[in-house]
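User: I'm curious whether this sequence folds into something compact or stays loose and floppy. Could you predict its structure so I can see for myself?
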Amino acid sequence: MLFNSFEFFIFFPLVFILYWFVFSKNLPWQNRLLLVASYFFYGWWSWEFMLLLFISTLLDYTYGFWVASPNRKKAKLFLWLSVINNLGILAVFKYYNFFIEQFTQGLDLIGFHTNPVFLKVALPVGISFYTFHGMSYVFDIYRGKQKPVKNFVDYAVFVSFFPLLVAGPIERANHLLPQVQQKRIFSYTQAVEGCRLVLWGLFKKIVIADSLAPIVDELFTNYHQYSSFSLLLGVIAFSFQIYGDFSGYTDIALGAAKLLGIELLSNFKFPYFSRNVAEFWKRWHISLSTWFRDYLYIPLGGSKEGRGKAVRNTFIIFLVSGFWHGASWNFILWGFIHACGFIPLFLLNQSRKYYALVVAHERKLPYVRELMLMVTTFAFVSFAWIFFRASTIGDAWGYVGQLFSNQTPSSGKFLKVPGTGIVLAYISSLLFVDWRLRRDERKLKFSNNRNINYIFYFLLFAITLCYFIIQVVMKNKTNFIYFQF
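Assistant: Here's the prediction. I'll summarize afterward.
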């Protein structure tokens, strides 16, 4: 089920009414409702993989008790079994065809020709997210940071909670499970914040991301037909498409959870206002980058075993992060590019320079130097997005080659794409609003003046509703980009 669909606009109010008006005084029944609603939400999209979700959940629930054993050898054995099971599920459904294809091509190079068997099964929605939920739970038990959950329903809600099930954020057991296990009381303030986040997320998805999508598709598909300047605008358009799409999903997820009395982890904190690549990764897909830091980078030794190993570990993190996004070499190259941008900052002790506050935290505008750093970081990140968006590495290099060709800068053909002018206006509006909100990504308060805020919310609602109706009439509703990961 999509957040931007009629089905969800019927589904969620029904869950909300049952949750707060029927089962509000009975926590076990509230959690059972969340579990049923989550599986219904997932099954609406991919009912054939509901069993896979259940098996994955059951396995890690069971492993949790064994990993908690005081016998460390036994605990370590079942920890590895959990890792093997979770990575095995990913390997089969997400990476099997990729590895078989690479292996076959390798054999062809040395003269051995085979007829490989490929898996003709669609990638289960959200598989990368719920397997990471399970692994983090088992890892935390092994480290003594989490106790095994006895109530299976509580644990299953943690894994499959529908606002975050298919595209995150990737939650931690010690953050979400206590909220699942404790009585929840309706908060008007929390609910209002949730409604604002849902509205803002829908605006970013339906108005910004979906309006940019056909322009980006046209330019990346037919890049050889466009001028360098047009392709530059295409790169910028995709940068805001993926930001609007993914951060929009996160805002809706956080808002929907707030309406149910649950606080999820932050996943975006205005990443395009970053002053270097390290700060960008502090602000982009935060739940994934911190997951890799805690469960891969630190176990590999982190930065405690010398700079050489720290550089090695950093490269591993970025390459694995790229591969996590998809079974394709262009994603791995995307991760490599970011590693190359991060490593010099690490070696120069600049990787944690901007970890404290967002840019111009106490000022209305950034300094000129800060502005130049933001523009440079955005240019680097946007260049890397080419390899993320392109279908293959060949297409990515073709796009880059055309982008840096000696053609006369001209936006003529680009501006003929319907809706380009108004979409550029929406990008400017998005940046303006983000700048106003940059000190707190959760409280969508545009002004201290109540009337201005009401006008702002009304405009958001009216514009989003108009675009949603147009999408329904034209039947051009799109999935969220991160559903494919």
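Summary: The chain has a mean pLDDT of 88. The two ends are 16 Å apart (CA to CA).
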